[in-house]
Amino acid sequence: MATAHVTPAQFKALAAKHVPESDVQAAILEWLAWMKVRAVRIETNGQPVHGPGGSIAGLRTCSHVGTPDILAWLPWGQACAIECKRPGEGKTGLRFSQAAWIRGTHARSKWTMILVAESRLDVEEVLGPLMEGWKENESSRTMFFSDFWHCSS
C-alpha cells in the first residue's frame, strides 16, 4: 500500500485552515503589549448584552462594519490599524466592507498606518524596525505630549 507524501507547502496550507483568526489577533496583541504599544481589539460582530437572569437580551457592537480587528497607537503618535486574517487568506480574504474601510481611511489620513496581517511576524516585520529606531533615538527627542497638552486650572 502506497502512502501519500505531503509537501511542506501542502502541510502549511492544511495547518493554516485550522488556525482561527482570534489566535492571530491574540498573538499580535501580545507582541504589541510586549513592545509597550497601546492597542485594543475591536469587536464588530457584537458582544452579548445580558438581561435579567443571565439571558442574552441582544448584541452590542463597538464599531462600524469593516473596521480592522486591532487599533494601536504607536509611541510617536501615529495610529496603526491591523486587519487580521487566518494564515493563507491575506489580502484575498478581505471582505468588501474591510477593503472600503482601508481605502477610505487611507484617502482621508495618510498618517494612519494600515496593515493586513496573517501572523505576529507580519506585524513584527513592519513595526519592529520602526520601534527599534524610535528607541534608539529616545534620548535625543525633545518633544513630549506634555509640551502640547498643558492643562491649568
Features:
6 strands; 153 residues; two-stranded antiparallel sheet
Oligomerization status of the protein chains: single chain
Figure out the total of helices: 5
Percent strand: 15-25%
Mean pLDDT metric: 75
| Shape estimate | globular
Order of helices and strands: HHEEEEEHEHH
Instruction: List unreliable stretches of 5+ residues.
Output: 141-153
Number of strands: 6
Radius of gyration: 20 Å
Structural class: alpha+beta
Tell me about the largest β-sheet: 4 strands, mixed
Residues in helices, as a percent range: 25-40%
Strand order of the largest sheet: 1-4-5-6
End-to-end separation in angstroms reads 84 Å
Describe the SSE topology.
Blueprint: H1 8-16, H2 21-34, E1 38-41, E2 47-50, E3 56-60, E4 70-73, E5 79-84, H3 96-108, E6 113-117, H4 120-136, H5 145-148
Parallel strand pairs: 5-6
Antiparallel strand pairs: 1-4, 2-3, 4-5
Please provide a written account of the structure.
The protein is an alpha+beta fold and 153 residues long. The chain has helices at residues 8-16, 21-34, 96-108, 120-136, 145-148; strands at residues 38-41, 47-50, 56-60, 70-73, 79-84, 113-117. The strands form two sheets. The protein has a four-stranded mixed β-sheet with strand order 1-4-5-6, sandwiched between helices. Strand 4 and strand 5 form a beta hairpin. The longest helix is centred in the C-terminal third of the chain and has 17 residues, at 120-136. The radius of gyration is 20 Å and the shape is globular. The model is unreliable at 141-153 (pLDDT under 50).
